[in-house]
Amino acid sequence: MSEQREGRTRRGRRLLVRTGVCLGGALVLMVGVKTAVAEMYVVPMHSMEPEVPAGSRVLVYKLADSFKPGQIVAYRYTTGQTYLGRVEAWDPNTGALTLNRNGVGTFAIAEKDVIGRVVLNTR
Question: pTM to 2 decimals?
Fold first, then answer.
């Protein structure tokens, strides 16, 4: 009888260890994807309405390496806040993007300030 209990206890420990390893691996994978590939942001302002209303969540693809007019991108402003803007022009030679935001007008930013391209929003 004690051998059966001991066998069950060993199997239970193995199962617990395997589960912990799987959960730890999944956590590491999720953090890696969030920091390197894509991330969700909440849109606090009305600057991109009607396409992206305030309060929407957007998924930003961080590995985007080219931009086309009409695409919406997320970028960091000098204050460190994240904003959205519509691409009007992109010069790959200089790395400058010309963006437009509703009510703000047209302005240029450096490509290094772009976080990525918006690929999904929850209107």
Answer: 0.69
